[in-house]
């Protein structure tokens, strides 16, 4: 529908406002016309009465009646020298219904009286009082009918309304054309640019070029240009990352198989008779284990999403002991690391044991590697407690703490890595798995005294 468009509503509002303005002009104009009409009748009546007074006794009755008809009144009364004198008279068709004094009328009174005559279809007789022309007396009074007055007011009002209509339509059409040219056309051009860009947002040629001269439209085009530029850049970056991720996933898959085979050969090196080989074998196995784990993490992150957890009621203490046992074995041969476990034996929760195992492994392994990087002894503490429908698992270490950059990008893939050679996927995967359980993973503290993470999980669903 036309009037649901911006142009249609603007056209409609323009016509309404112009008509309201014309109405505000119409009422004073009609009131002014009525006042001029009555003053003209007073002037004609005064001329007729002066003609009679100039020739007393010589004017016949028919001539007096003709003077009254030419003046458009029934009676003429002059007040001169404090004497009120009926100069001309004729029979009144009905009693006088109202008296109007035009000697010092107010604007509101004139408009009110004009509207009263305009909307009263009855032909009434009224008395009008005014000042004589050229001070020929104190005042002059006439009686006349409102019918002729109303007829002329309606005719005058009709001309005013037609003129107002022409002005309104002309103004509306001109404004409509101006709005179409200056506002609607640029807006439509902006919408077309947005639609064209949406068809292929990666195509930089479709980014809008700001050309508007109207400040508001230019600001909108500038904002859209910046948004499209940023979005196109992000899409290109994501596309390159997706391609890179696919390549890394394929490489990691093949590399994991190669490293697994290498790990089997490294196991046999421990039985070598060469003492140097036997000493190097654990370190080689440890390095191979880390490389295999990195490949597995990369492959897991390359998936669109982790599978939903298979929730079962599990005991937390045995699961923590299994993870700690694996890390104690991996820590053998390195500076002494003490593992402290404080998990109540009867603490149970609803969780996916395999996914929770991965979460704890990632966090405890990060803590172990942070202490190993210092070359000094240290400790890792795993604690848990229940309360308010949640289980809070804390993993703290006495390592050097996280650098500022790592804290700022802690859960961002490929940006939150701390260890040299790491890619920052462990914490990202752990946080994703915890969210899948309806919980959250958060950094509780990190300073030169060490780092502590907390896992908050609901006890049951």
TrEMBL record:
<dbReference type="GO" id="GO:0000155">
    <property type="term" value="F:phosphorelay sensor kinase activity"/>
</dbReference>
<dbReference type="InterPro" id="IPR005467">
    <property type="entry name" value="His_kinase_dom"/>
</dbReference>
<keyword id="KW-0808">Transferase</keyword>
<protein>
    <recommendedName>
        <fullName>histidine kinase</fullName>
        <ecNumber>2.7.13.3</ecNumber>
    </recommendedName>
</protein>
<keyword id="KW-1003">Cell membrane</keyword>
<dbReference type="InterPro" id="IPR050980">
    <property type="entry name" value="2C_sensor_his_kinase"/>
</dbReference>
<dbReference type="InterPro" id="IPR036890">
    <property type="entry name" value="HATPase_C_sf"/>
</dbReference>
<dbReference type="InterPro" id="IPR003594">
    <property type="entry name" value="HATPase_dom"/>
</dbReference>
<dbReference type="Pfam" id="PF02518">
    <property type="entry name" value="HATPase_c"/>
</dbReference>
<dbReference type="InterPro" id="IPR004358">
    <property type="entry name" value="Sig_transdc_His_kin-like_C"/>
</dbReference>
<keyword id="KW-0547">Nucleotide-binding</keyword>
<dbReference type="GO" id="GO:0005524">
    <property type="term" value="F:ATP binding"/>
</dbReference>
<keyword id="KW-0812">Transmembrane</keyword>
<dbReference type="Pfam" id="PF00512">
    <property type="entry name" value="HisKA"/>
</dbReference>
<keyword id="KW-1133">Transmembrane helix</keyword>
<keyword id="KW-0418">Kinase</keyword>
<feature type="domain" description="Histidine kinase">
    <location>
        <begin position="250"/>
        <end position="461"/>
    </location>
</feature>
<feature type="transmembrane region" description="Helical">
    <location>
        <begin position="160"/>
        <end position="185"/>
    </location>
</feature>
<keyword id="KW-0472">Membrane</keyword>
<keyword id="KW-0067">ATP-binding</keyword>
<keyword id="KW-0597">Phosphoprotein</keyword>
<dbReference type="InterPro" id="IPR036097">
    <property type="entry name" value="HisK_dim/P_sf"/>
</dbReference>
<dbReference type="GO" id="GO:0005886">
    <property type="term" value="C:plasma membrane"/>
</dbReference>
<feature type="transmembrane region" description="Helical">
    <location>
        <begin position="6"/>
        <end position="27"/>
    </location>
</feature>
<dbReference type="InterPro" id="IPR003661">
    <property type="entry name" value="HisK_dim/P_dom"/>
</dbReference>
């Amino acid at each position: 529908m036309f009037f649901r468009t911006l142009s249609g509503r603007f056209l409609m509002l323009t016509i309404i406002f112009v008509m309201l303005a014309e109405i505000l002009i119409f009422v004073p104009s009609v009131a002014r016309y009525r006042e001029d009409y009555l003053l003209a009748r007073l002037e004609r009546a005064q001329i007729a009465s002066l003609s009679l007074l100039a020739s007393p006794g010589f004017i016949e009755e028919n001539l007096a009646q003709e003077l009254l008809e030419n003046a458009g009144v029934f009676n003429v009364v002059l007040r001169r020298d404090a004497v009120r004198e009926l100069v001309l008279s004729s029979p009144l068709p009905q009693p006088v219904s109202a008296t109007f004094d035009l000697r010092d009328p107010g604007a509101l009174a004139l408009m009110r009286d004009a509207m009263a005559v305009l909307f009263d279809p009855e032909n009434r007789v009224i008395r009008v009082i005014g000042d004589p022309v050229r001070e020929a007396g104190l005042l002059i009074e006439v009686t006349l009918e409102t019918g002729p007055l109303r007829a002329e007011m309606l005719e005058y009002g009709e001309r005013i309304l037609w003129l107002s209509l022409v002005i309104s339509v002309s103004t509306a059409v001109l404004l409509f054309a101006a709005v179409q040219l200056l506002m609607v056309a640029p807006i439509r051009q902006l919408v077309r640019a947005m639609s064209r860009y949406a068809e292929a947002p990666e195509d930089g040629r479709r980014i809008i070029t700001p050309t508007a001269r109207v400040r508001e439209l230019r600001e909108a085009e500038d904002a859209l240009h910046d948004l499209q530029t940023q979005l196109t850049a992000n899409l290109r970056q994501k596309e390159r990352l997706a391609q890179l991720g696919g390549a890394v996933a394929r490489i990691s898959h093949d590399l994991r198989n190669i490293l697994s085979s290498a790990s089997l050969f490294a196991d046999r090196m421990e039985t070598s008779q060469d003492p140097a080989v036997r000493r190097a074998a654990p370190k080689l196995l440890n390095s191979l284990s880390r490389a295999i784990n990195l490949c597995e993490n990369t492959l897991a992150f390359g998936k669109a999403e982790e599978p939903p957890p298979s929730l079962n009621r599990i005991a937390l203490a045995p699961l923590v002991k299994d993870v700690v046992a694996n890390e104690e074995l991996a820590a053998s041969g390195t500076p002494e690391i003490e593992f402290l476990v404080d998990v109540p034996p009867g603490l149970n929760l609803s969780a996916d044991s395999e996914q929770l195992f991965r979460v704890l492994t990632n966090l405890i392994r990060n803590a172990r590697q942070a202490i190993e990087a210092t070359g000094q002894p240290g400790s890792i503490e795993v604690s848990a407690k229940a309360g308010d429908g949640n289980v809070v698992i804390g993993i703290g270490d006495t390592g050097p703490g996280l650098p500022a950059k790592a804290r700022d990008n802690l859960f961002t893939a490929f940006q939150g890595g701390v260890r040299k050679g790491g890619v920052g996927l462990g914490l990202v995967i752990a946080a994703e798995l915890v969210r899948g359980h309806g919980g959250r993973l958060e950094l509780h503290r990190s300073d030169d005294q060490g780092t502590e993470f907390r896992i908050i999980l609901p006890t049951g669903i």
